[in-house]
Amino acid sequence: MFTGIVEDLGKVKAIKSGSHSMQLTLESKKIVEDIHLGDSIAVNGVCLTVTSFSTNTFTVDVMPETVKATNIQSLQMGHVVNLERAMPANGRFGGHFVSGHVDGTGVILRKRKVENAIYVDIGINEELSKYCVLKGSIAIDGISLTIFDVQPKKLTVSLIPLTFSETILGIKREHDVVNIENDMLGKYVIHHLDRKQESSPITIDFLRQNGF
């Protein structure tokens, strides 16, 4: 479990590509300060398992399904990635519940500065947008953010200057692909309602009509 509060910007030091899988070696002195074999690390919001580590690097395996479903497939030597270690049980919970199980990808459509905020418009498909709620939480490349506008094929998030400078959203450009994980609690609620609509009067429309 993660919080979506990025701890460090890592760098891709080595890539071994299989026919459909990958092995990545990433550099980050901060992350390896407290790391063990089998630890979960969020890399651009993707939960991956540490298979080896040194004084300033660690290695993870990426399965075929993960390569296919995320922007991990586009990483190259020298690329910078967001990194977060799993949340400790006694740690502060600064973001929202992030599982590291990416739901899909989006494309940056536009970035613009509005006073001290940076607005980022991201193109998504309708399947992802149905789980997006105005003022709700979403993880973009593993960053916990708040949705400020949502349309059938687009959402908008706002970044403070610190988030812009300390995560890869600050260096990504228009047309770049980002990983998206919808809010975990919302996904469970909608999944439950979709399965119960035929047998229960409690539907999404019912909840909307009654102020939920």
From TrEMBL:
Residues spanning the membrane: none
The Lumazine-binding repeat ranges on this chain: 1-96, 97-193
Record flagged with keyword Ribonucleoprotein: no
Coiled-coil annotated residue ranges, if any: none
Functional pathway: Cofactor biosynthesis; riboflavin biosynthesis; riboflavin from 2-hydroxy-3-oxobutyl phosphate and 5-amino-6-(D-ribitylamino)uracil: step 2/2
Keywords attached to this entry: Repeat, Riboflavin biosynthesis, Transferase
Matches recorded under InterPro entries: ATP_synth_asu-like_sf, Lumazine-bd, Lumazine-bd_dom, Riboflavin_synthase-like_b-brl
Role: Catalyzes the dismutation of two molecules of 6,7-dimethyl-8-ribityllumazine, resulting in the formation of riboflavin and 5-amino-6-(D-ribitylamino)uracil.
The name this protein goes by in its record: Riboflavin synthase
Protein's organism: Neobacillus novalis
